[in-house]
Design goal:
The structure holds 2 protein chains of 2 kinds.
Chain A: H1 3-12, H2 24-28, H3 39-47, H4 51-55, H5 59-62, H6 68-72, H7 79-92, H8 100-116, H9 121-132, H10 139-147, H11 161-170
Helix pairs in contact in A: 1-7, 8-9, 8-11
Chain B: E1 2-5, H1 16-28, E2 32-35, H2 46-50, H3 52-69, E3 73-74, H4 78-92, H5 96-105, E4 115-116, H6 118-122, H7 127-134, E5 143-146, H8 156-159, H9 169-176, E6 180-181, H10 195-198, H11 200-216, E7 221-224, H12 227-235, E8 244-246, H13 247-255, H14 260-264
Parallel strand pairs in B: 1-2, 1-3, 3-4, 5-6, 5-7, 7-8
Helix pairs in contact in B: 1-13, 3-4, 3-5
The chains are: A mainly alpha, B alpha/beta.
Chain lengths: 180, 276
């Protein structure tokens, strides 16, 4: 097996050797139309050790982890944890992320969880908008939700913030820096 | 009958009416929900996406609190439920990352406690019967489709679901209070999750398709049990005007839970005409 395949297997806990390219994963994937390659192709690429192509791809950032592929796979291979592993590797290696909005959202979300212990949507979304420099998309929907009193203005922190911080420190650099 | 309760971050914001209606329905049926003290964010879709240890660690802290409280914990939000169940599975399997997390937080997952979604609760003996007996305003004539999405059912080894392609628990609950639950083929398709924020056009392609299929089936509303599914389907249906209800709102309306008029005001597509 290619060393890259071994690495992804260990990180994801998925046995890639079981794949026999039946394409059931691709058939059920809700986001495959926004991937560069179909799901079964991703498995093959990992087996072939195509590290640069995969870690620099949009594909790994477009998977939303719905677990349809793995649930239907006759060999029990879940692409969700594999995509998680590929994203972690891409971040660890400091690769450019071709889906900046997705990265900005996850970073803003985790920064909020880290700072308050719970996610505060108003400040999280403001941080996300600042990172993407896109203030107009969904402004209308955001204002409607705000008008319905759905987005509280002030954040409330929890008592156990120090424990939450310990969890983030135990995790790797991929989860972002404090307040970042 | 008492359960610990994990509301999740959206309970106090975008899913306010989910929290209110959940508390209302449980109260009406004589169940007591005790909110977990000082619970933290489950990590949403972001923690596991960026770092496995953080993805397991955040829900593990809530499980440690739940174990201390000693009661099974209800997690109505599908996204939170899935994260908590994945952390529980890792703790129970003695996963090396889970061990590190236990050491860091200073706890051991021992006998543990059960983690319940609303589906798990609805399947508890006597709950459907209690719903039937508690109906004050039967919803006769109301046609709905139940939408489960991803996280309540998949992966079955984590959720413990026996039926993951065609679950029927929400349908049984809707019918218990007099509504008609229609059959359709899209109940476990994905709504696009956080694409609703990062790629609204793509979430709209998925959600408007789902809502169109629900209308085709003849539904007057879609019934869900997830804050993100509700927000996506309600916001991103391209003006088709189909209300998207939390299952607890539908049940609460039939049980006559007070304050329900306030729930309808939180929706972008107004469901109140369904209950006049």
């Amino acid at each position: 097996m290619h060393p890259f395949a071994t690495e992804v297997q260990e990180l994801s806990g998925q046995n890639l050797s079981r794949c026999y390219q039946c394409k059931k994963c691709t058939a059920g994937c809700p986001t495959v139309s926004w991937y560069e390659w179909p799901n079964h192709g991703v498995v093959r690429m990992i087996q072939r050790g195509m590290r640069d192509a995969l870690l620099g791809s949009k594909t790994i950032w477009m998977c939303v982890g719905c677990d349809t592929c793995g649930t239907r796979c006759p060999n029990g291979i879940y692409l969700g944890p594999i995509m998680d592993a590929l994203r972690s590797l891409a971040r660890r290696e400091g690769r450019r992320v071709p889906e900046p909005a997705v990265l900005a959202f996850h970073e803003a979300f985790l920064a909020s969880a880290r700072r308050f212990g719970r996610v505060h949507e108003a400040t999280m979304l403001a941080a996300y908008k600042l990172k993407t420099r896109d203030f107009l998309t969904d402004l209308g929907v955001g204002l409607k939700l705000f008008a319905k009193g759905k987005i509280p203005v002030l954040p409330k922190g929890i008592q156990g913030k120090a424990e939450v911080e310990k969890i983030f420190r135990l995790g790797g650099r991929a989860a972002g820096r404090r307040g970042g | 009958m008492e359960l610990s309760y994990y509301p999740g971050c959206t309970a106090h914001s975008t899913a306010w009416e989910f929290n209110e209606s959940t508390e209302g329905v449980f109260r009406a049926l004589g169940w007591r929900l005790r909110e977990l003290p000082d619970w933290n964010c489950c990590g949403g879709a972001s923690a596991h996406t960026m770092d496995r240890v953080v993805g397991l660690g955040l829900p593990a802290r809530n499980l440690a609190i739940a174990q201390r409280m000693g009661r099974d914990v209800l997690v109505p939000c599908a996204g939170c439920y899935n994260n908590v169940q994945k952390a529980r599975a890792a703790l129970e399997a003695g996963d090396p990352d889970a061990r590190k997390i236990e050491d860091t937080l200073g706890f051991r997952w021992g006998k543990g406690v059960g983690v319940l979604s609303l589906l798990d609760w609805l399947e508890r003996p006597g709950v459907i019967e209690a719903l039937k007996a508690g109906v004050k305003r039967p919803l006769q004539g109301l046609k709905v489709v139940a939408y489960y999405g991803c996280q309540l059912v998949r992966p079955p080894r984590v959720t413990g679901r026996r039926s993951w392609e065609n679950p029927t628990t929400l349908e049984r609950a809707c019918e218990a209070v007099g509504a008609q639950a229609l059959d359709w083929s899209y109940k476990v398709d994905c709504c696009g999750a956080d694409l609703g924020i990062t790629h609204p056009d793509r979430a709209e392609a998925l959600c408007s398709g789902l809502v169109a299929r629900a209308r085709e089936a003849g539904a007057q509303a879609v019934v869900v049990s997830c804050g993100l599914c509700q927000a996506n389907l309600d916001m991103r249906q391209k003006g088709q005007g189909l209300p998207v209800l939390y299952v607890t709102e539908l049940l609460g309306a039939a049980l006559g839970v007070p304050g329900r008029e306030k729930w309808w005001k939180k929706h972008l597509v107004d469901p109140s005409p369904l209950f006049r």
